[in-house]
Amino acid sequence: VSLQHLTTGRCALQQEQIYSARVVGAADILLNYTGLWVKLQALKEKIASFDSVLIAYSGGVDSALLAHVAREALGDRALAVTVASPLQPEREIRQAAELAKRLDVEHLILTADPLGDERVRRNDTERCYWCKKIVFGAVAACARARGIRAVLDGAQADDCGQNRPGARAARECG
Question: Alpha-carbon distance 98 to 81, whole Å?
Fold first, then answer.
């Protein structure tokens, strides 16, 4: 909707009202951006405190952000690791690899077969736990083999209060 349309006809808003709304909106955006910037810098500083990191990397928003920030903070001491399995389409693995290349972060693809485990195949309420236990077990083994002591996993703060069996498995794997 154009400014002209808002000031004529049925939407008869005063120019001052529109300007005021724009200023308040811009201030909100600036404050939110500043808050995010502070959080991003804190994340970068935390990552920079490690000698090196391995990012459990799916190519999704959370792990891609971690990979990008880790690359900025540590350079070539950041490693993104994707675990390919029969449960994940090959297209997603390719897309993760392409994004890692654009982010200029070293990327390694491991393989695991969660379906080889009866506890996953049972498809009960703990299937996510057992699947992630296998996936994060592979990630943790890779980190140990490379001498990397910090493994990063992207998760949303909203998930923290929920029952997340996969997150529990990730914590248990180190």
Answer: 13
pTM of the model: 0.76
pLDDT tens per residue, range 100-113: 999 999 999 999 99
What sign for the dihedral angle of Cα 174, 45, 79, 120?
positive
- List b or e across 37-75, with b for residues whose CB sees 16 or more CB atoms inside 10 angstroms: eeeeeebbeebeebebbbbbbbbeebbbebbbbbbbbbe
Q: Is 107 helix (H, G, I), strand (E, B) or coil?
A: strand
Q: How many beta carbons lie within 10 A of that of residue 145, not counting itself?
A: 8
Angle at 61 between CA 134 and CA 29, to 5 degrees: 150
Among candidate residues 48, 92, 39, 49, the one with its CA nearest the CA of residue 71? 48
